[in-house]
Structures are given as structure tokens and as C-alpha cells.
Amino acid sequence: MNFQVTVLKILVSYPDGFAPMADLKRDMAILATSGRDWAERTKRLAARVPDLDIFSHGLIDRLNGGWRITDKGRSVLKFMEARPDTQAAASEEVPAPGLAAPPLRLPAEVGRRRHARLQRRRAARERTRANAS
What 3-state class would DSSP assign to 43? Predict the structure, then answer.
């Protein structure tokens, strides 16, 4: 599992991009134990930007008690998640993480559906944790 890609994915799933450390650790533990699919996916995403360093490239901000993804972090994550045929048409080179990748525009409806799906997942995790105790 690629730690840095996982952190970006977790932070982007929160509505304002901020996650307290306790939530970040919990989500990280869930993903770390979710199986090979997640590990393989993060490896593929990390391969798109080989010298990824979320801290030194300013992709996240460390704030009181947690981390927040920056606009630059969102851009790099969108670049990593873009389909290969979309990227090939845009550029043959992988941009350096120090440089913000051009933001890809998603239709508003897709963004809303994604946000709703992430909220449902978060609520399901909370229900599971509440039922377990």
C-alpha cells in the first residue's frame, strides 16, 4: 500500500479536505486491511508520479490535529486518477509533483454522486463501528 497516495485519497474524501489524525489513522487502518486490490490500486496510481512526496511538494497542509489536502494535492491526485487515454491526448510526459497538474473538469453531477457515495461509505463505517462496540 502506498502511504502517500492513500493519504491523498482519504483527505479528498472529506468534504472540506480536512481529516483529524484519529480519523485519518482509522481510515488508513481500514484500507490497509481491505486486501490486495487497494494495495495494487495505490501502486498503479503512485507509478503515475514516481517522485511523489506529499509533504515537500505541498500537497497537504499540517494543521492543528490533522491534515488538509491542498488544491495542488487535488490536482496531482486527479492527474494520477485520469484515464491513460485522456492523459495521452493531453501530454506524453508525467508532470513533476512540484508543478500543479492542470485540473481536469468533471461534470457537476459526477462530483455530487461521488461525494454522496463517499458519505454513504463513511456512514456505513460509523454504523459498523458503533455496532461492534
Answer: helix
